[in-house]
Amino acid sequence: SARFNQKYHLNNHVRTHTGEKPFKCDFCSARFNQKSHLNSHIRTHKGEKPFKCDFCGAKFNHKHHLNTHIRTHTGEKPFICKFCDARFIRKTNLNDHINKHTGEKPFKCEICEARFYQKRNLQKHMITHLQEKPFKCELCDARFTQKPNLQNHIRTHTGEKPFKCEYCDARFNQKSHIQSHRRTHTGEKPFKCEFCDARFNRKTHLNNHIK
Fold first, then answer.
1. In a domain, 165, yes or no
2. Do the beta carbons of residue 156 and residue 139 sit within 8 Å?
3. 29 and 68 share a domain?
4. What terms describe the molecular function in GO for this protein (predicted)?
5. CB within 8 A of 143, min separation 6: which ones?
């Protein structure tokens, strides 16, 4: 059984069993089972990249992303296949490789139930469905490629607004809308112009600026 020398580490470990995620992001609805994971996630909102590569100067918002990147310089491949001598820089690449040995296909298409060894193969497959719109609204003739898009659309008929702002009384029928609204409270401006230093809290505002 697992043993820990600090109660803090034990508590973190227990949450991997219970599924508890007590640490919530103030910028979006993401939740985490460890505070360190929340802190790393928050950097993606703030654009902070404190971890710098000594070889090329590239910066990262997660230390493990830096560690993985450094292996592209050093050539280190610490993840070894137990079925053959193949070695990999990333554990995810090893897992994909092992699936070919075991025959496991964990990545499933939600539209046609096709299964794949690798996530990127599923993503390529999904392109074949882009022209298909199997999810039809029962209240009108609108059709959608994905079920979540249909669910968002149905709320325009029902008037349901399940997403409530924690800073004011505003409510929204789509999660993306509340995320945009929340930035008016937090001041976050994640969309940066590639031509100047201007930043915006909505992508549409950035697009208008670039025009």
1. no
2. no
3. yes
4. DNA binding; identical protein binding; zinc ion binding
5. 133, 134, 135, 136, 137
The residues that bridge with 171 in the sheet, in sequence order, are 164
Read off the amino acid at residue 59.
Answer: K
91 and 58 within one domain: no
Handedness of CA 35, 36, 37, 42 (dihedral sign): positive
| Cβ atoms of 79 and 90 closer than 8 Å | yes
| pLDDT tens sequence across 131-175 | 778 789 999 999 887 788 899 999 999 999 998 998 899 999 988
> What is the DSSP track for 25-47?
-SSSS-EESSHHHHHHHHHHHHT
Alpha helices, DSSP H, located in the chain: 7-18, 35-46, 63-74, 91-102, 119-126, 147-158, 175-186, 203-210
**Rounded distance between C-alpha atoms, residue 118 and residue 90, angstroms:** 14
In a domain, 138, yes or no: no
pTM over 0.70: no
Distance CA 33, CA 31 (A): 7
**Which residues touch 70 (CB under 8 Å, ≥6 apart)?**
53, 55, 76
Together in a domain, 82 and 70: no
How is residue 155 written in tokens? 């709320």
Note whether residue 20 is domain-resident.
Answer: yes
